Structure formats: structure tokens, C-alpha cells
Design the sequence.
């Protein structure tokens, strides 16, 4: 997983499926969709240090970052790609407790295990990369509508019309 941060979240709210809140708490699931409603990126978001921290699959991180910079255009938004300086890990409370730290901090973390995947699968959470490829599924196909990854009341986002029709 790779980390990307956003400051001034209006752009983020306008393009992802989930209702992201600017307060600390458990990670929130979201997806970035194509105009046809298929998942191009998905991940978890937390809020810390006055910014949204997004965790996306390594395989789509570069494309996600590029797409968000394209959507940004002239908006007063700060987007930072932290893949080179930060890492994402999981506490013993997977899949809900995510840890974000510098590469130096991550060097002291316990090695990855399959415990996270067991917990994630038991909770019914599909993950882009491990379980499906980008642009192949709709949010409903992986239960995002049932597990809080799609907010039907927040307003428009890319692909929203297709998701609402489904």
C-alpha cells in the first residue's frame, strides 16, 4: 500500500465515493471511479496532521496520483505523494487500525503476516490488487455499498450516476 496526502479536501470529496470526515477516527473506505462507474482505485483514508492520508494499492498508486493531479487543475489543493518517505502498516486490530509512519519508523515494525488478509476477508472487504484488477468491477460488486464505502447522500462524484442507477 502507498500513502498520498490531501490538504483542503473539497476536491477529494467531489471525486471519491465515501464520506471522508476531517477528524481522527477509524479508517474510512472509498473508491475513485471511472465515469462508467468502475473502480479505478480504492483504499482507506484517515485524517491526521490537518490532512487526509490515503492508502491505495501500490499497483494503482501512480495512476491515482496522476489522475488526482489532473482533476486538481487550478484548485487550491495540496497533494503530496509520500510513497518514498512513508509506509503504511497494520496494528493487531486489522483491518481497522492502520499505522502510517516514516520509513525510519517502519524499519522497526514487525514483518508483514497474513493476519491482515484473514481479518479483511472475514470482514467481507475486497482489496484492489489482491482480489480484483482496476476497471473490472463496480462498487456494488464488492459490497462497498453495504460496508460504508459508498455514500448515497453526499452528492456528486465521478461515476456517481452509474452507481446510483445500479
Sequence:
Amino acid at each position: 500500500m502507498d500513502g498520498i496526502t490531501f490538504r483542503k479536501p473539497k476536491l477529494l470529496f467531489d471525486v471519491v465515493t465515501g464520506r471522508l470526515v476531517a477528524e481522527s477516527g477509524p479508517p474510512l473506505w472509498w473508491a475513485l471511479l471511472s465515469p462508467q462507474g468502475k473502480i479505478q482505485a480504492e483504499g482507506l483514508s484517515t485524517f491526521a496532521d490537518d490532512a487526509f492520508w490515503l492508502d491505495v494499492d501500490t499497483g494503482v498508486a501512480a495512476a491515482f496520483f496522476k489522475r488526482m493531479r489532473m482533476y486538481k487543475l487550478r484548485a487550491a489543493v495540496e497533494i503530496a505523494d509520500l510513497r518514498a518517505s512513508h509506509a503504511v502498516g497494520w496494528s493487531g486490530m486489522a483491518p481497522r487500525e492502520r499505522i502510517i509512519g516514516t520509513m525510519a519508523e517502519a524499519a522497526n515494525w514487525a514483518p508483514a503476516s497474513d493476519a491482515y488478509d484473514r481479518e479483511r476477508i472475514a470482514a467481507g472487504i475486497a482489496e484492489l490488487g489482491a482480489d480484483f484488477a482496476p476497471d473490472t468491477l463496480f462498487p456494488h460488486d464488492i459490497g462497498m455499498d453495504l460496508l460504508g464505502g459508498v455514500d448515497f447522500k453526499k452528492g456528486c462524484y465521478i461515476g456517481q450516476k452509474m452507481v446510483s442507477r445500479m
